[in-house]
Design goal:
Blueprint: H1 14-25, H2 29-42, E1 47-53, E2 59-64, H3 104-111, E3 113-119, E4 126-132, E5 135-137, E6 148-150, E7 155-161, H4 168-173, H5 177-194, E8 199-204, E9 214-215, H6 222-230, H7 232-235, E10 238-245, E11 252-259, E12 269-274, E13 277-278, H8 282-295, E14 303-310, E15 315-316, E16 327-328, H9 331-348, H10 352-358
Parallel strand pairs: 1-8, 12-14
Antiparallel strand pairs: 1-2, 2-7, 3-4, 3-7, 4-5, 4-6, 8-9, 10-11, 11-14, 12-13, 15-16
Bound molecules: adenosine-5'-diphosphate and magnesium ion.
Magnesium ion binds at residues 35, 38-39, 99, 104.
């Protein structure tokens, strides 16, 4: 028999539960940014500006021109599991928004100092609110925590300061600010491509002179945004592919851009969106890489933008708190179709090197 003394079971304190949950969702500044960016897009924004200091660890700010948040919702805003996006579980089957868990702002408020400035179109003034551990808080000890009136444009500004101030080991694990900033830039760039037409920008605080590191315009096409973000050497060597299998049993619409032989990259760039969510899928990635290395001369590393619209009933978006993975039915068959579509376009394009392979 075990010599270990029996430990009694107790329910964890809510604060502890929420801080543990926050740690699962927000690993680093770029996770926080992804959540904030998705909220801005869910709010119907057409302009989104990101500002970062010290790789987002000192400060991460996002400003949008979306719907804004109703003043009376501000006390609830950062509570866990509070959302305006779904009401019942079945709503997940037809979800049209990025968000649904109502956990992002709550999580961020548990691991940083969070400030929200927001104004709806109908409101005469804007409101500024500060949060800590899910709740409204004053700026100084003893100060009234109520949201305060202020002047601001329509839309929402979220300011995240001192990320992981209360989780020292996580802050220490993220020492290199340049690495964190490049991850932020990567997320903004990928969303900018997928949401071409929405103007996005990203810059470091204090970098006003040298301008933004990324800037796209209202109404730009996908190719224009790819050029703005990844450069002309990429955008001018892309082929568009698409296949509509939405009425088949696969229930998927495939479309995207794939690079030909002329793009020189050190590693694969894959922008993968499934039902508009930026996700990762190693099986899709390795199958595409294999196509390139087996059919193209000099086995170039591909640049791929791939968007899959899958019948919502066939997709499970709720497999991971960060939503960076989704599961879908008929994965192998769908991947086959993707690879075939890209292969067709590589063979069809008038790149003589590819054509000569085919003959
Ligand atoms: P979720 O996105 O899953 O609903 P969040 O914690 O990310 O949960 O956000 C909580 C709620 O706050 C959202 O449902 C939305 O109503 C509101 N919200 C958050 N960010 C914005 C924003 N930028 N513009 C308008 N409303 C927002
Ligand atoms: Mg959200």
């Amino acid at each position: 028999a075990s010599k270990k003394k029996v430990s009694r079971i107790r329910k964890l304190d809510t604060l502890v539960i929420n801080r543990i949950a926050a740690g699962e969702i927000i690993h680093r500044p770029s996770n926080a940014l992804k959540e904030l960016l998705e909220n801005s897009l869910d709010a119907g924004s057409t302009q989104i500006q990101v500002l970062s200091k010290d790789g987002g660890m000192k400060m991460l700010q996002i400003q949008d021109n979306g719907s804004g948040i109703h003043k009376d919702d501000l006390p609830l805003l950062c509570e866990r599991f509070t959302t305006s996006k779904i009401q019942k579980y079945e709503d997940l089957e037809t979800i049209q928004t990025y968000g649904f868990r109502g956990e992002a702002l709550a999580s961020i408020s548990h691991v940083s100092h969070l400030t929200v400035v927001t104004k709806t179109r109908d409101s005469v003034c804007a409101y500024r609110a500060k949060y800590s551990d899910g709740k409204l808080t004053g700026s100084k000890l003893g100060e009234n925590a109520e949201p305060k009136q202020c002047a601001a444009n329509d839309g929402t500004q979220i300011i995240v300061e001192d990320l992981f101030y209360n989780i020292p080991y996580r802050r220490q694990a993220l020492k290199k600010t340049s690495e964190e900033y490049s991850r932020i830039l990567d997320v903004v760039g990928k969303y900018a491509v997928h949401n071409a037409g929405v103007a996005m920008s990203c810059r470091k605080l204090g970098n006003k002179v040298s301008g933004s590191d990324l800037q796209t315009n209202v109404g730009s096409s996908k190719l224009e945004v790819i050029q703005q973000v990844y450069g002309r050497s990429v955008s001018s060597n892309l082929f568009e592919f698409s296949k509509d299998l939405s009425t088949t049993n696969l229930g998927v619409k495939i479309n995207g851009y794939a690079s030909g032989t002329n793009v020189e990259q050190r590693k694969t760039t894959l922008l993968l969106f499934i039902n508009n969510r930026l996700v990762e899928n190693s099986q899709i990635k390795s199958n595409i890489e294999q196509l390139y290395s087996s059919t193209l001369p000099r086995s170039p590393k591909p640049f791929i933008y791939l968007s899959l619209l899958i019948k919502p009933q066939y997709v499970d978006v709720n497999v991971h708190p960060t939503k960076k993975e989704v599961h879908f039915l008929n994965q192998d068959l769908i991947i086959n179709e993707i690879v075939n579509s890209i292969q067709d376009i590589l063979f069809k394009n008038n790149d003589s090197q590819v054509l000569s392979l085919q003959n």
